[in-house]
Amino acid sequence: MAAHFQRAQMSWLVAVWLLIPLLLLIKKKWVIYIFPVLLLVGAGIWINTTRTIWKIRALSGVPATRMALILGGVALFTALSGLAFRSKTIKERYKK
């Protein structure tokens, strides 16, 4: 996500998304609840980006299917990554 916002020259969002993984160092139960939400936000950003690029390409007459499949896959992977926080191992590590 940080690289995505770096490309858009949004430095403050780059900093935010670079700091977010540091939350994993906090061994508190709330971390396993907030991270899937953050991953869903990230997936939403990818979906919005896909829609925006699709529109630009459609207006330009440039094919957009491959781009949509790739970014759709990125969005799906990002969203499904939140399921990792439901695993028994992760829940035990963050049970405080």
Tally the helices: what do you get?
5
N/C terminus separation: 28 Å
CA-atom Rg in angstroms: 16 Å
Largest sheet: none
Q: Give the number of domains.
A: 1
- Tell me the strand percentage band: under 5%
What class do helices, strands and sheet pairing give?
mainly alpha
Helical residue percent band? over 70%
The helix/strand order is HHHHH
Shape: elongated
Low-confidence stretches: none
Summary, kept brief:
This protein has 96 residues and is mostly helical.
Molecular structure report:
- The protein is mainly alpha-helical and 96 residues long.
- The protein has one domain (25-93).
- The chain is built from five helices and no strands.
- Helix 3 (31-60) runs antiparallel to helix 4 (65-81).
- The longest helix has 30 residues, at 31-60.
- The model has no long low-confidence stretch (mean pLDDT 95).
Descriptors for this entry?
96 residues; mainly alpha; 0% strand
Show the helix and strand layout.
Elements: H1 2-7, H2 11-19, H3 31-60, H4 65-81, H5 88-93
